[in-house]
Amino acid sequence: MNWKTMTLLAAFALSVNAADTKTYKIAMIAKSSTNPVFLSARTGAEAAAKELSAKHGINIVIDWRTPPTEDGQVQAQRLAQAVNEGADAILISCSDAGKVTGAINDAVARGVAVMTFDSDAPASKRFAYYGVDDVETGGQVMSELAKLMNGKGSIAILAGNQNATNLRRRTEGVKKEAGNHHGIKIVDTFYNIETPQDAAAEVVRVMKAYPEIEGWAMVGAWPLFTKTLLTDLDPGKVKLVAVDALPAELPYVEKGIAPVLLAQPTYQWGYVSVEKIIEKIHLKKDVPVINKMELVRVTKESLGSWARQLKAWGFTDVPEEYLKLP
Amino acid sequence: MQRVIRSLFQGQQTGLILVIVLLGAILTGFAGSHTDRLTGREVNNFLNVHTLMQTATDASFFAIMAVGATMVIISGGVDLSVGSTYALAGVTMAMTLRVLGEIGMTQTVALGAVICIGIGLLCGLLNGVMVVGLGVHPFIITLGMMWVLRGIAFVASKAESILVPDALTGVMKANLGLSAALYPVPMLLMLAVTAVGALYLAKMVMGRHIYAVGGNVEASRYSGLRIGRILIGVYTLSGLTAGIAAFAGTSYYGSASCADATGYELYVIASAVVGGASLSGGKGNAINAMLGALLIVLIRQSIRTLHLDQNYEWIIIGCAIIIAVVLDRVSAQFTLKRLTGGDK
Description:
By secondary structure, chain A is an alpha/beta fold. Chain A has helices at residues 3-20, 36-56, 72-84, 97-109, 134-148, 165-178, 196-209, 228-232, 250-254, 266-281, 303-312, 320-323; strands spanning 23-29, 59-64, 89-92, 113-117, 128-131, 152-160, 183-191, 213-218, 239-243, 260-263, 290-292, 296-298. Chain A folds into two domains: 3-132 and 266-293, Rossmann fold (3-Layer(aba) Sandwich), CATH 3.40.50; 134-263 and 297-323, Rossmann fold, CATH 3.40.50. In chain A, strand 9 (239-243), helix 9 (250-254) and strand 10 form a beta-alpha-beta unit. The model of chain A has no long low-confidence stretch (mean pLDDT 90).
């Protein structure tokens, strides 16, 4: 057997092997590609794709189709495009459940499995949802804030995009829980564009307009991605509790401005969801419709272990000093 | 015959169509293929009826708005409020129909269309009256109205995403005898609005007046044209097309919210400009605006179909707009030079 024959045989064997390997294309449509929490979800999805590909002898491809800014209509368009281009499954965090429900149902009618994460479309035919219980999350934010304020004082709610169902439900949870703390007065609910600078500017504007505010219940931690509030808020006077605890937000815990952050393990959005999708479409297993994600309570005491967890999930911007903490 | 062929190849529409066909050919060549889950057949990722229809549908909502916005641009103005008019019209329709409850399919569709078109006309009329009456640059008036109208939609809807009755979605997603998951109604509506807009601009006296005003407002005034009335009419038509687009878009996607069509005014203006409309007025047409919208959607589509890094989407669209305008300018200079005998 000469080298040409061997090469041909090797190429044939490789091509047979490649043809035998089943490929699953999962289109991932988060709310916005400029929001770091969704980038960590993507990292999680890609890690799960790699691990599960090796484990099951298949080829899982994550096709990232997230729009640059939040727009339910664009999400619906991208979902339809993914189906037209042969996606096997869709993983979506809905900016506006009403807008994407029709597109999800169309995809399911054409045999494509759809799963939601972070923000659900409960009226659609998606087979599963993975994320926190938003009303409970809002309640937890308020409960932690009330503890920090000894059950009394004026607070404001930072509520993010007013069209996102999940944020509206968290805000509802905050208000519901506030009703259990009679000394707490909600000054108002403030919506904001979900970019760090816009959110920080909104907090600063509100603080100037309502100097009596002593606490912030933030259903998302957008302003903590900037350093603005580290200098503009006095930790002796104002406390805040927010959902999410990514590397850039950790100094707020250290400085005592945000003594408690309730972290969503956003990496798991991608990782766990891809696992569920593969269970459904490859292993043909039944997957529960609602898959609840638990929040992680990040405080000064747990800062070190949380920082190391973030690093292990692939975050490259975790400050060194936190990694060294016990 | 020779003259017809020459004019066909010299027309800007031909240029746009050629670019669209060329881009389509590139996409077909590089898109790859997949096995259709239902039929089991191998289909090209781009050149399949679902993708082509989806591309036309995606373009249709802002192509319809682009027809009206092009008329404003031809008149020498600009309308930045079309996205907000869309949102307000959609939200008003959804809220009204929710309050009324079940009223029968025909009544639902008719009332929905009347509300969207009525709100669109009203917003456009308001823009026109303020532009003419206050004598303030249309950029400022429509910029202000952009915020005012979206603010009204926000306050009225309490930022809720409101579902519309199934009757509306049923009409806008009717497959008209095609296979399932093919929805040609938005595309047909786009073609109809474009055809009416093109006829209005090319064949009707009112349409020709718009070119005259945009080309030289003082000369038009001395010719006895009623500039104020023409401008009010132009902004009203822009509002009308925004209302039609709102009816189509809100019905197609099944819900309305105050954040709908945020930033679409820029896509609409870009469609008109890519279609050859001159921001200094006097130039542009409805068919080109529709082709401009199709081209922009196709560029967006190609970024995903070719698996390019989609973070470059804005850069690519921005560059495409600049290139289109520069090519148009060069072509205009070339034509002028030839007409004045400079190329002898």
